[in-house]
User: Fold these one by one.
Assistant:
Number 1:
Amino acid sequence: MPVDLTNGKPLAWDSAKLDADTKAMLDNLQPNILQAHVRESMSLLLVQFGDGADGRRFLRALVPLMKSARKHLEEVRDFNRAKKRGTPYVGVGISKLGYLKLGESTTKFTDNAFKSGMKRRKDTLSDPAVGAWEKHYQGEIHAIVLIGDASPEPVAATRTRVLALLPKTAKILGEEKGEGLRDAQGRGIEHFGYVDGRSQPLFLADQVAAEPGTNWNPFFPLSHVLAADPLAPHPSRHFGSYLVLRKLEQNVRAFREAEESLADALGFTGDDRPLAGAMLVGRFRNGTPLRLHGRPSAEGHPVQNDFSYRDDPGARCPVSAHIRKANPRDSRDGGLERSLGVMMARRGQTYGRRTDKPWDDAPPATRPTGGVGLLFMAFNSSLQAQFEFTQQTWADNPDFPAGNTGHDPVIGQGEREVKVRFPTGWDGKKLSAPQKQVPQTVTMKGGEYFFMPSLAYLKSL
Ligand code: HEM
């Protein structure tokens, strides 16, 4: 039975009743796509091949270091049951130019964004000129090797094994080091100090069962992340996913200044001041959604995700907030993010070390202005319909979801000319006078689009 990507039920990956094609899919799919792999420590190697045959041999030689999605899910189950440590994550992505260098034809790939490459999409995405990107992103990137684990040691050891396989004709154009950032309670945060990675589309039965909800359905069909691997021996059983990688530098000082200025402009004092930042993000720093609460929930309270924006025209969570622009969820079973197939699986990691405490209230002047940020990564079945749509049609569009909403205050790119109005308090019926939008504090420093092929393809090289 062909793999049903549109099945309305979450995938019971460990069911004895699984059909042969779905089993083959799980045995040949790379991990970290259907379920996030632990990646507290990460190394991303950007590779350029000088010789196609050598490139094919290198990619094939990586297979013994990799595991399947099924193996990963078994490791997660064993960890949850018996705290048994899993093995490192090794993932491989190939760019359009990479496939051409390997001697493949890319006509069977259907995604136009992938087939153009990120450099040629810079106008669509309002990205900086390629000459302003970091040097290693300016060249022809053919492949990416992602290595991740819970601590730096297994990552370093695996990285050494990967590099030992690299042929003389290939070179590492550059390397990114991801390092998880956590707040005082141990929650994963991004550099502006907010809990991140909480809201995800879930594909698997055990994950969906662990997140019951009455206002938001976190289940999404496999069609949101899987694409047939067109070059694999059996594309009906062998699947992959499109990966977007973007290095997004965060000017933390400027963002903190923007939060303070907005709090001043809206007249917030005392315990109300954190509302300003929450209005930009859509959640307080500890993850409490503004849709549900006007104050951060007590520490120890699980970070909530069971909400939709139905019945909130923007009095609680402004329509311009980052999480509302990026996921408009207007009902339990979703809105455009589901009907248009936009929701993607975010798998990013922070980069750059901090000496300050990103979650506290220390003055903006003590915050870094660069050198830290997010290695934004997400898996898509269509880069055009998911990542690009979110960035271009929602985040960069001042008229989404309604006229004069403004850019996404966190990731929006392009001139921020429109003035915006905010609620003057949580659930406030009164709106402020039009305000200048907060300045852009996230800068794209480079990136690329990749396809993460099936293990069956890599073995066939
Ligand atoms: C959620 C920050 C880049 C799309 C979030 C959250 C934070 C955050 C704090 C809330 C946590 C959660 O709900 O999981 C950032 C920062 C970024 C960044 C600091 C850049 C430096 C991006 C990009 C996109 C994106 C480039 C897509 C184009 C999303 C989506 C959600 C989200 C879809 C989930 C919203 C929801 O389901 O409620 N982000 N983000 N983010 N972000 Fe970002």
Number 2:
Amino acid sequence: MPMVLLECDKDIPERERHIYLKVDGEDTRDFLPISNAATIPGTLSERGCSFCGAKLVIGGVLKDTIQMIHGPIGCAYDTWHTKRYPTDNGHFNMKYVWSTDMKESHIVFGGEKRLEKSCHEAFDEMPDIKRMIIYTTCPTALIGDDIKAVAKRVMEARPDVDIFTVECPGFAGVSQSKGHHVLNIGWINEKVGQLDAEITSPYTMNFIGDFNIGGDTQLLQKYWDKLGIQVIAHFTGNGTYDDLRRMHKAQLNVVNCARSSGYIANELKKQYGIPRLDIDSWGFNYMAEGIRKICAFFGIEEKGEALIAEEYAKWKPQLDWYKERLQGVKMAIWTGGPRLWHWTKSVEDDLGVQVVAMASKFGHQEDFEKVIARGQAGTYYIDDGNELEFFEIIDLVRPDVIFTGPRVGELVKKLHIPYINGHGYHNGPYMGFEGFVNLARDMYNAVHNPLLKLAATDIRGETATPVKEAAE
Ligand code: CFM
């Protein structure tokens, strides 16, 4: 039976439909785990809330936009400093996050006046900043505060400012995935098409679904500059509010993260006829393939080949050094969803690493279709996993390194298994050629960490996960 009921789930048999062990020769499409469904009561989900999907993942990345979070202070705090998306203008987005700091009396009597006052206060404090996104949160959505009406009043009082509203409280969906969707659709319907773009190249594109984690956007931008391709808008890594109002001016939409941002690419195709091209930006083979696809679209294939040759000459020897020393390392990937299918084949082909377990917090069926098609037999595929399941899976597959977030990562560290921040990266960027060498370096350092050799046993009294010896 390819679906797996773990020991720890014996009182929650429904979990069996969320965990799949791929067997050789099986038609995997018959056995996709259930996904994008409400978390089963009795399990403690690792998921984020829908507000988080809109604010932390997409909107909060913008480098020139006040983030006005209409709710209790915790909603702002917990989506403020927990993600690493730098900007080239001094990390504006990390310094300035605003909250209406709703307290009990505001909940009782309504928070619209307080929100309006907060908007003016923020614009007064930062006279150079003219753009804002207002988000509802659970309590302000429940009491029915009309944030669109407030935004309208503020824009009337201040003609030089522009405000976008996101009505996606934490409870709006089963995970952060809902927040991606709400923001994508709101933006295309309310803001795209408002501004003209100054076209400086015969080749123009939007780069969609890359959030400048550890500097990814800035690294890839070097490639687009070399190819002479003008990026009209970055959705949303190192991006600006006004560039995103110009998305309709691009000839092509290149999509990296299809999960968080496929919606806007589809709408740009439907509403403006702009084609969508999906690529993988992690890994040498994938990045080269992505550059080739983009260049083929514009008819600049020779430029693309020259760039790939130049990057390979520079970075491939370093990648190969790590590849030699990472052969057979067993890796687990426990992140949101897309990184499972982006990474499993790239670490296998480029680094000789074997992926033995993958858990997705919020991936949909199409994510599992892709990841199971690309992943190996003998690998566990888990939807909406929880800590008890992770511990049991660790015992089953004994990974040498786990790519996951700090919450789970700090736990597995106590089992003396190294983890790498699979969300924010340890020492990124990880995209592109140079980036994948960084990923390989972080993985090498993690599995060869000399501290692990001091840890003779793990907390279960068993021999610690073996540390791969260097090949030399
Ligand atoms: Fe896309 Fe992302 Fe991800 Fe994502 Fe995320 Fe993320 Fe992720 Mo963390 S947008 S879906 S909601 S690639 S924050 S930058 S790493 S869970 S797999």
